[in-house]
Amino acid sequence: MDLYSLTLAEVAKKIKAKEVSIKEVLDDIYSRIDTVEPKVEAYITLTKDKAYERAQVLQQKLDNGEDIGPLGGVPIAIKDNISTEGVLTTCASKMLENYTPIYNATVINKLEEAGAIVIGKTNMDEFAMGSSTETSKQKETKNPWDLDRVPGGSSGGSAAAVSAQMAYASLGSDTGGSIRQPASYCSVVGLKPTYGLISRFGLIAFASSLDQIGPFARTVEDAALMLNAIAGHDEKDTTSANLESKDYTKALVNDVKGKVVGIPTDFIREGISPDVKEAYDKAIETLKGLGAEIKEISLEYAKYSLATYYIIATAEASSNLGRYDGIRYGYRAKDFKDLDDLYRKTRTEGFGSEVKRRIMLGTYVLSSGYYDAYYKRAQQVRTLIVNNFRKAFEECDVIMIPTAPKVAFKFGAHDASPLEMYLEDIYTVPVNIAGLPGISIPGGFGENDMPIGIQFIANAFDEMNLLQVAYTFEQNTPYHNEAPTMRGGNN
Amino acid sequence: MKDYEVIIGLEVHAELKTNTKMYCNCSTEFGADPNTHCCPICTGMPGVLPVLNKRVVEFATKAGLATNCEISRFSKQDRKNYFYPDLPKAFQTSQYDLPLCIGGHLDINVNGEQKRIGITRIHIEEDAGKLIHDAYTGDTLVDMNRCAVPLIEIVSEPDIRSADEAVAYMQTLKSILEYLDVCDCKMQEGSLRCDVNLSVRPRGQKEFGTRTETKNLNSFKAIHNSIEFEIKRQIEEVENGGKIYQETRRWDDAKGIGYAMRTKEDAHDYRYFPEPDLAPIILSEEYIQNLKDNLPEMPHIKKERYMKDFDLPEYDADILTSSIKTAKFFEEANDICNNPKAVSNWIMGDFTRMLNEKEIEIDESKVTAQNLAELISLIDKGTISSKIAKQVFEDMFETGENAKDIVEKKGLVQMSDEGAIKEIVQKVVDANPQSIADYKAGKDRAIGFLVGQIMKETKGKANPQIVNKLLLEIINK
To answer: In chain B, which among 7-66 make CB contacts under 8 A with chain A?
Structure first.
């Protein structure tokens, strides 16, 4: 039986019912990885020994009649910027190619409390900076739907692993779209929760006020199960919200009658490829047909999100990445004549060009004489964008927009222009700026039969509404049932 | 030669004596083996986040209240970015434009004159680690125990005009911080450090001269001497038509010279921005009022109380209250023996002399407040004379034994039996007719000789007042 093609919910049930042993599930998934991974290259590290050890412990518990948790025995992949104790965590960078954390990120502890098994660390854009996973210094991850195309980024490995059925679910991180955009490129569910819902302790920081960890899964139900496991206040993270916990599986109701879906026509402009526009229009009709009220809303400041983002995110990143200096851990240059030289050489050799570009940008916008005009102004515009969304949610329950302006592009398509790469995030970035929850779910296929994602956005901490609308859309469309064919790859 | 005015401002860093560090649970204890009081958070490992230690805010607010500052109801922390091996995150979390305390002052006393020194601000920030240079291998070693130990930075207005004023300011500030029990103020351990900003200008000139900054002075002596040196240097330079460079300087106390640091001093752009991992610090009125209501009695208030309640002269009261440890000792001893003048004299006299010789503090000596009180009681009761008491005290200081035991062991109980003394007085008088004659002839010194003889006979134990009384009685008969 192809266990790997089951959903997370299904395999968790089977394990609990003892229809299949946890070891069998692991054997099956690692065998799947052996088959498919050479083509897709989603994983940087596989943690077989640890996984089988855990499997033994969990099976023992289960056999004794103990509760092993809602994710008991389920194999999960983790993006390589999330700290895993004793397991290499590289951020796909030369700077951390030999770095092994001595502690677990809070989300890892929470996943393990829920019974999940970490089976490996996945590929990403270096330090989460990118929209294609092409800046990884480890390997090149392919889109399982077309091996000549990018899986999206920066959580390309996590998206591809779930899409190619090499994991039941995975964790990624989203700062400007890094979960949602690859989810849309790879036709899986990608959820970025409200900023503050998930602890950031142990997530190797890119942009502190924008980063958020979230799950990739094949269904909205699976995403809700993952969310249940990782959500919640962490006293080690001052920015994590202290709210009453919710059971997100209660949102899995197939009904949108009376829900108001906001369409921001002033924000969706030209630049969307026709196939995406078509899928989007179709989605609107689908929801209308299911009884939702479609309402035009205004997001007049959303168009400034990209500029705001590239100032705030790079500023925070330039500071967060200062610690990579070759002194305490990570890469250190071999020959240097003094301290300055050590710093310069280590960071020149340890960082890739996109990372350097963003550090320079960030340093510039914070520098004396420019702080007010750039950083301060961007934060002020941020408030306008936050208020914009807040006002919009007075008139609707969720907002719906495409996830990405076009389908996955071919490798190297944006090599000539980093700025063009930045434009890929145009519909995902506003959500991070405003700290809101956003989800991308399979919404059809477009040019070259490549997947298109539809994105829903809800008000802060309103994941219940978000999941309900997403679930209903999913249950009434066939897209999530398709599996990638892994064509191409002759380059 | 023109008359020059010296403008001095002090930046003082005080380590707050919280049990744990500013953003993590590591111990702040001084003197541990290198890199043993560390964790992923204070060593800036990838992925960690800070959580502010509430007591840091409490201690800093107390310092602000005790120095008459306005406490900010809303303040925030900011990142100060720069690269150095003792700074693991490559930024120091500090406070930039919205500090916790603003606009205070403290009053100093220099050569009998009172002066008010303004305090611009007090803010909280984390300390950096320590770099140790291994002379043998030439390597530089990083000890991160001190990383993220909480500090307050107290910035004075440039109101100080001399080395004496600077030292007085530091002493007053140290006293306040000790009274609040927010800092152990051990300058030699680095828990209290001082940077001196100094410039000179011809008297009457409106513009300030260029200032230099001398960093990390860790004793009052160093502060005093480095200031005198720098004043002299700057005046000489200006007089000779030279230029004062805005530079960072160091002071070599052993050699008695100040020198500019060799590293190039570009004006650092720290690219300050609000720390996104920490919430702003918002204090309620109740919080601030509660701290205010529970502040301990401050040095200058205590001094006035001593003068009033115990009828002590200002000079004495000043010394007793200059250190909370001394004040505590004084009060405890006085509570027992109820003789403030005596306690004061003992502390200010022999006791302090002996503490200084041994280079220890009052709470480090073997003599407890109870011990001293007991000694004074013995004198007051007439059990021993004050002369004998001095001997007893020396023993007490050496051994930590209490006065009663020492007196008993050494048989030092004062002889107060008038009958017995009278016999000896008579004996001495009879044996020294010449002295009697001398005295009667007007040589008062002769009495002293006779008293000395009597004391010799009694091995110093005779009660001196009784001796004098009986001697005069007998002579005048």
So the answer is: 40, 43-52
Q: What is the 3-state secondary structure (H, E, C) of chain B?
A: CCCEEEEEEEEEEEECCCCECCCCCCECCCCCCCCCCCCCCCCCCCCCCCCCCHHHHHHHHHHHHHCCCEECCEECCEEEECCCCCCCCCEEEECCCCCCEEEEEEEEEECCEEEEEEEEEEEEEECCCEEEECCCCCCEEEEHHHCCCEEEEEEECCCECCHHHHHHHHHHHHHHHHHHCCCCCCHHHCCEEEEEEEEEEECCCCCCCCCEEEEEECCHHHHHHHHHHHHHHHHHHHHCCCCCCCCEEEEECCCCEEEECCCCCCCCCCCCEECCCCCCEECCHHHHHHHHHCCCCCHHHHHHHHHHHCCCCHHHHHHHHCCHHHHHHHHHHHHHHCCHHHHHHHHHHHHHHHHHHHCCCHHHCCCCHHHHHHHHHHHHHCCCCHHHHHHHHHHHHHHCCCHHHHHHHHCCCCECCHHHHHHHHHHHHHHCHHHHHHHHCCCCHHHHHHHHHHHHHCCCCECHHHHHHHHHHHHCC
Q: Annotated catalytic, A170?
A: no
B43, B50, B273 member nearest A328 (Cβ): B43
Using an 8 Å CB-CB cutoff, list chain A residues near B138: none
Q: Which residue in chain B is spatially nearest to A237 when comparing CA positions? A: B49
Which is higher by pLDDT, B387 or A477? A477
Local confidence band at B460 (pLDDT 50, 70, 90 cut-offs) = confident
Q: Which of B46, B81, B272 sits opposite A96 (nearest CB)?
A: B46
**A61 catalytic per annotation:** no
pTM of the model: 0.90
Dihedral sign, CA of A201, A202, A207, A212? negative
Q: Which residues contact A187 (CB under 8 A, 6 or more apart)?
A: A145, A163, A442, A445, A451, A453, A479, A480, A482, A484
CB-nearest to A237 from B49, B52, B273 is: B49
Active-site annotation holder among A14, A79, A121, A406: A79
Q: What is the pLDDT of residues A333-382, one digit of tens each?
A: 999 999 999 999 999 999 999 999 999 999 999 999 999 999 999 999 99
- Collect all residues of chain A within an 8 Å Cβ-Cβ radius of residue B279: 238-239
Listed in order, strand segments (DSSP E) in A153-256 are 169-174, 189-192, 212-217
Q: Do B81 and A96 touch (CB under 8 A)?
A: no
Burial B160-171 (b: 16+ CB within 10 A, else e): beebebbbbbbe
Please give the ipTM for the structure prediction: 0.95
Q: Do B46 and A83 touch (CB under 8 A)?
A: yes
Q: Give the pLDDT confidence of A13-57 residue by residue, as tens digits.
A: 999 999 999 999 999 999 999 999 999 999 999 999 999 999 999
Mark whether A79 is an active-site residue.
Answer: yes
For residue B214, CA distances in Å to B139, B208, B233, B260 come to: 26, 17, 13, 9
**Chain B, nearest residue to A203 by Cα:** B47
Q: How far is A319 from chain B (nearest CA, A)?
A: 7
CB contacts, 8 Å: A316 with chain B: 276
Residue with token string 């995110």: A313
Distance, CA of A443 to CA of A282 (rounded, Å): 9
Contact at CB, B45 and A105, closer than 8 angstroms: no
Question: In this structure, what token pair is assigned to residue B189?
Answer: 């351990």
Residue A421's alpha-carbon distances to A183, A280, A425, in angstroms, are: 17, 22, 8
Cβ-Cβ contacts under 8 Å, B142 against chain A: 327-328
Residues in A closer than 8 angstroms to B52, CB to CB, are: 238
Answer yes or no: do A366 and B81 touch at CB < 8 A.
yes
